[in-house]
Design brief:
CATH topology of the largest domain in chain A: BirA Bifunctional Protein, domain 2
Distance between the termini of chain A: 52 Å
CATH superfamily of the largest domain in chain A: Bira Bifunctional Protein, Domain 2
Oligomer: homodimer
Radius of gyration of chain A: 29 Å
Strand order of the largest sheet of chain A: 1-5-6-13-12-11-7-10
Largest interface: A-B, 110 and 109 residues
CATH architecture of the largest domain in chain A: 2-Layer Sandwich
Helix content of chain A: 40-55%
Number of strands of chain A: 18
CATH class of the largest domain in chain A: Alpha Beta
Number of helices of chain A: 18
Strand content of chain A: 15-25%
Shape of chain A: elongated
Chain lengths: 498, 498
């Protein structure tokens, strides 16, 4: 095929919404993923990896953004296997895995998984078609303890990544409460005929942060026209129904007991609502006894979470640090992860209900936040020590030097290009090398090597203005006996790491 | 969609050739990947990550197995982007990346990348449609030093993963030598009309280990019928041509200089062949000066490597340890990685030639080898400490205990299921927990906790045959003051790690 392709007629580019990650970003990301992994492990979760694609019917399609008809998954028809799809999250593959291996698994089954997921959506700023999730789930128990643990896990995760206490909050709500409010205004949330209206109410509530109370009221009523003139149809509730829902949305206080009492009054005897309040109370008490106070985990009736499959507690990890939105306004950073209880996902395969609850970190969102805090991209690290090639007839000399460095565990390479000294020094600079090592004829006859400290050199060059005295002085360059080379290089590395 | 699916009519299964990785395997794999990464870093390579899919035309299709018409890539037509394909290796995306970012990169550009690749091939035992590669490449130099480095890297990688010296060899050859042999028998290797014959000769040589000299001779001549009766067409060489090629294939000796002299005679003045020998001599000398002797890196004229795009040195990491093949015969384990020089891949985008050379570890092959050596799956690790739930009205007590353990960095969890004591103990066993912690009413009133050492317990239970004395004796179970719990648990963990 290579031969058939017209040379250089091909453009080197990536499809929209995909990107390459380079060294600095990968190192920062790996460090963050390591902190999340350590926290998940500390909580007793075990790793699992499922493949990138699965049968389309096994994955199903439980995507949040159902407003856009185009939203979806990458699917293709395999000649042997029929329709397969790239995974769009890590929860659907987990449900398939648990159903397939249920009898052999410990119950509850607690696993974590990280990896890329793919969404066939319109890409935008900060919105990619391949991105990484990092999930922890407990499957096979309806014990509310499992949900409470995930709220603690979320808080501990953020702190392990360097988000200071006070800059985040974990908000908790319960889908049963949301459905209880619907019951309280005489809309049966489980009746098929009400499903569109139920979804419209949930979506309206979900937009309280963005639209404010007035906007939400419109979406609960006849609908709302946005700034661009686009009209969104409303849920068509009556004024007193709207009043109850708005009371619910604004029932949050800074005292958990007060919030829970407010909610209890609003749901007015709905059975689902009472279950929801009771579960929130249990989570609250559990968190309290583990030392997680209201400064970290907050009951917030406005938290909805996009996914349709949640059935009980839902939670969100929100960063309260401020950033600038598209329109230049200051806004709090918002969600970097979330999750909740989903009791019906495994049942698709097994018939019998297998309750489950999970938490997922939005990896790139969290990394953006860490960058904003100045904790995201600082791990640039130093490049390798570069051993210069003075004369290509003496490669063996340079190779011996590299071998000594590597045997001492020092990251290093002999220059592998074919250019001269000036280009080699430029190369070392571009690689962010801490130093170069020179073993020319003079050094060889003296049994020495010359070491140029590039980081010190660049610091000095900013101080010395006179170019000639700079070059003649050869600062940050010195000669050592070859047997002292390792110690001298380590000395430079230690100084730069400090 | 969930609602439309008939409950439990769905079968939970994976498409053929895909698999899930579970905790033990993931831990062993991560440990191995960490060793490879450390070696690549030591050699000065920097990480890069490219996305899972790319434009189909940007990837091209340079797959080794061109005999099977079905062999290929997973491709799908995206409504916005046209045809895209899942990557089938990490080299084609690298070529695209380098072409796209060439001006900004240090030259030579040295990167490593690991991750899954996908092949749309018939799966078989040990042959998956998603598998992991781990590559290091140097792009932008025709310096043979870069190839020599990769041979050292391959050897160091295997040793870092625990393959002892003497159990592997890195074999080196040169495509120019293979083409030189063709020139020596009057077949122009660069003439389009000879491309099928050239490939047939290369494939025949590649099969020397499997078919022996007689089988290769047939494939060089009129063809060969295998045991199943399938006929493979041969290269139709004349007897004296076959004799030269066979002389080449068997020219390897245990003395590198002797092998190189043999080769020099055989190629009989072919320019390409002479270049090939000269490059092998340079690699040999470079490796020698770095201390890599013939016990590790061997010139082997039989090494072909499947990929069509190689243009110069090719190398293979082979394990000499023995294993049993499909038919029950003892065979040496064979290739766990390889690579070579490919000078035309980036040119597809840029017109101008950008020479490159790379090495790739076949991750699952290497892991299978480590398992055979008893070094692959031993990192089972211990599960979390499980704090038992005695009475669900006292969850706060157990949660306090878990918090103390986690604050001390001890992997632990409160049992999150809803079953009784017996099931909880079974759960802890299944999780491979080192111990469980019990804080019942008695313990609470005494300010103590009871700790059951499960690993010691299971050891003792094998010694004690009398079931009653076992239960009454409660071995490996003891009580400590709650403030001494951390020290007691750490003591158990230390004993089991030792």
């Amino acid at each position: 095929m290579a031969k058939k392709t017209k040379a250089a007629s091909l453009k080197a580019r990536l499809p929209k919404g995909l990107r390459d990650l380079e060294a600095t970003e990968i190192r920062a990301l790996d460090s963050m993923l390591g902190n999340i992994r350590a926290t998940y492990e500390l909580y007793g979760f075990e790793p699992l990896e499922t493949p990138a694609f699965e049968y389309s019917d096994a994955l199903g399609k439980f995507l949040p953004d159902q407003e856009r008809p185009n939203a979806g998954v990458f699917s293709f028809e395999d000649e042997d296997e029929g329709w397969v799809s790239l995974r769009y999250d890590l929860t659907a593959p987990l449900a398939r895995y648990v159903a397939q291996n249920y009898d052999a698994l410990p119950k509850p089954f607690r696993r974590y998984q990280t990896g890329p997921v793919w969404r066939n959506e319109k890409p935008g700023p900060g919105r990619f078609r391949q991105f990484t999730q990092f999930d922890a789930d407990t499957v096979g128990t309806d014990n509310i303890v499992a949900d409470g643990e995930l709220c603690m896990l979320a808080a501990d995760c953020l702190e392990a990544c360097g988000i200071p206490r006070g800059s985040y909050r974990i908000t908790v709500n319960n889908r049963k409460l949301l459905d209880g409010i619907l019951q309280a205004i005489d809309i049966d949330p489980r009746a098929e005929a009400n499903s569109w209206r139920r979804l419209t109410v949930l979506r309206a509530i979900d937009k309280i942060d963005r639209l404010g109370p007035e906007g939400v009221e419109r979406l609960l009523g006849e609908g709302r026209k946005d700034d661009s003139g686009d009209y969104t149809r409303g849920a068509d509730l009556k004024p007193d129904q709207i009043k109850t829902v708005m009371g619910y949305v604004t029932s949050s206080t800074d005292k958990p007991d007060q919030t829970l009492s407010n909610l209890e009054q609003l749901i007015g005897g709905s059975k689902l609502g009472e279950e929801g309040v009771s579960e929130l109370r249990q989570i609250q008490s559990l968190l309290g006894s583990a030392g997680f106070g209201y400064d970290r985990v907050v009951v917030d009736p406005g938290v909805v979470r996009g996914l349709d499959y949640y059935t009980g507690p839902v939670f969100e990890a929100q960063l309260t640090l401020e950033t600038i939105d598209d329109k230049g306004h200051k806004v709090s950073f918002g969600s970097v992860g979330g999750g909740g209880r989903y009791d019906d996902l495994v049942a698709r395969f097994r018939g019998a209900k297998i309750p489950a609850t999970g938490f997922s970190v939005g990896v790139s969102r969290l990394q953006s936040a860490l960058s904003l805090l100045g904790k995201g991209g600082s791990e640039a690290g130093t490049g390798p020590v570069v051993v210069l090639v003075m004369d290509k007839n003496h490669l063996a000399d340079y190779q011996t030097v590299v071998r000594k460095l590597r045997n001492a565990g020092i990251r290093s390479e002999m220059y592998t290009g074919t250019s001269g000294m000036r280009a080699q020094m430029k190369y070392a600079d571009k690689r962010n090398s801490p130093c170069v090592v020179i073993k020319g004829e003079d050094e060889k006859s003296e049994g020495t090597v010359t070491i140029k400290d590039l980081i010190e050199g660049s610091r000095l060059s900013e101080q010395i203005e006179d170019n000639i005295s700079w070059r003649e002085g050869r600062p940050a360059q010195f000669s050592v006996k070859e047997e002292d080379m390792i110690a001298a290089v380590k000395n430079i590395l230690d100084r730069h790491d400090a």
